[in-house]
Amino acid sequence: MAKSRTSFICQACGAVFPRWQGKCEACGEWNTLHEEAPTAGIGALAARGAKKGRIFALEGLSGESKPAPRVLSGLAELDRVTGGGFVPGSVLLIGGEPGIGKSTLLIQACAALARKGERVVYISGEEAAAQVRLRAERLGLSDAAVELAAETSVEDIIATLSAGRRPALVVIDSIQTMWTETADATAGTVTQVRGAAQALIRFAKLSGACVILVGHVTKDGQIAGPRVVEHMVDAVASFEGDGSHHFRILRNVKNRFGPTDEIGVFEMTGGGLTEVANPSALFLAGRDGSAAGAAVFAGMEGTRPVLVEIQALVAPSALGTPRRAVVGWDPSRLSMLVAVLETHGRVKLGQHDIYLNVAGGMKIAEPAADLAAAAALVSSLVGAVLPQNMVFFGEVGLSGAVRPVPHAGLRLKEASKLGFSRAVAPQGASDKSEKPAGMGLTAIRHIGEAIADIAALGRRSPPERKPS
Ligand code: TYD
Ligand code: MG
């Protein structure tokens, strides 16, 4: 029989190696291999002479299964991300950088649910119960009947939870601090995280309680350790935001029971997280419409339209290789757009530094932002101030063609609601029925048309910094 040997497991991706090495060949990370004791694999079970399998009944697809009612948390933005409430018996993993507000969000959700009379348990492996209580007090949640404990042993937690009334919601903050006796490794290692998650998932499925696991992410955005549990849980959401801005976005990454591209928007205030029902107003707040190089993009986040300002600065470069810096958008998308503008729009950007920024710290992944980014770039280059009441959306192809994007009607409606009355959009973007009353629509087919319009604006309104 083969001798059981310890193995080395990459803490970033979970790959297993027979001996230590500096770099993980699977994910390319350095210094992530940890030695862990062998676990009883299938081979070991077979060797022990596992008993013959039990025969179970198989079911058909048309069988009857009534959907359990979803559990609404009471925080509308959180319920939007879960696809209309927690599904009983499901497990949700919430990832985010340390300090982003995961514990704050979850204690607020716990309190809201407890106030509805449900049994809610909050297990903190990071903070003492007194610390959690202190935070709850500061947030004005002390009166909610949330059951609290500072524990890290998964077996103890499951025994405690199984003893009383079935909880509607259990929060485990965080999965990296949990440890299970079934795995022989230190807490926080891949083996422990996987083992602890497995046990908690089994508890959720058997009891029908909804379990939320908190996971910390590394600097490059991966849910460290818990990345290996992403495939085991029913839903994964990431809580994002940056230190210099107050708003936080809860973004759905995976959801077995609902849409996956939904976002919930919150604002971090002195009194905890408050929900932002109208994110566009938040992102456009403090906009200086009188400067060249700013274009408002009518975007979509999931099923929800969100307006954001795209700012560009195009300045003659003193360097041999001009600088290209992007915040909130894909740098390779910018390179592509610059090439299209040069080739098909006869806009000369080769000798210019280009800075592009999505205002408010928002991140845009939609190709529909191409047209707005192009408008901001050309506006900055020619010094033309774009009309304050104008929004842009449309995808720019490599041929310079401006292509239609989905949900034109929703984008236009949101723009109209926020007081915008002109839109530059792809030809055939929306039929007449979708266009809100009072919205002037300029339909374009090619990026050249947009550039010509903006250049004409620039000639009509020369920069105000003229010698007097
Ligand atoms: P926390 O929920 O502890 O973050 P995480 O669990 O993701 O590590 O939030 C910590 C930050 O939130 C901290 O920097 C302070 C800030 N905060 C507020 O601004 N207002 C509040 O009411 C609370 C509770 C926290
Ligand atoms: Mg925390």
Automatic annotation (TrEMBL):
Q: What is this protein called?
A: DNA repair protein RadA
Q: Pfam families recorded for this chain?
A: AAA_25, ChlI, Zn_ribbon_LapB
Q: Which SMART domains match?
A: AAA
Location of motif RadA KNRFG motif in this chain is 254-258
Provide the binding site for ATP.
Answer: 96-103
Task: Sum up the protein's function in the record's words.
Answer: Plays a role in repairing double-strand DNA breaks, probably involving stabilizing or processing branched DNA or blocked replication forks.
The organism of origin for this protein: Rhodoblastus acidophilus
Tell me which CDD domains the record gives: RadA_SMS_N (cd01121)
The family assignment reads: Belongs to the RecA family. RadA subfamily.
Quote one Gene Ontology molecular function term: ATP binding
Residue ranges occupied by any RecA family profile domain in the UniProt entry: 67-217
Region annotated Lon-protease-like, chain positions = 353-468
What do the Gene Ontology cellular component annotations say?
cytosol
Give the keywords, sorted.
ATP-binding, DNA damage, DNA repair, DNA-binding, Hydrolase, Metal-binding, Nucleotide-binding, Stress response, Zinc, Zinc-finger
Lineage: superkingdom: Bacteria
Sorted alphabetically, the Gene Ontology BP terms of this entry are:
recombinational repair
Q: What free text does the record give on domains?
A: The middle region has homology to RecA with ATPase motifs including the RadA KNRFG motif, while the C-terminus is homologous to Lon protease.
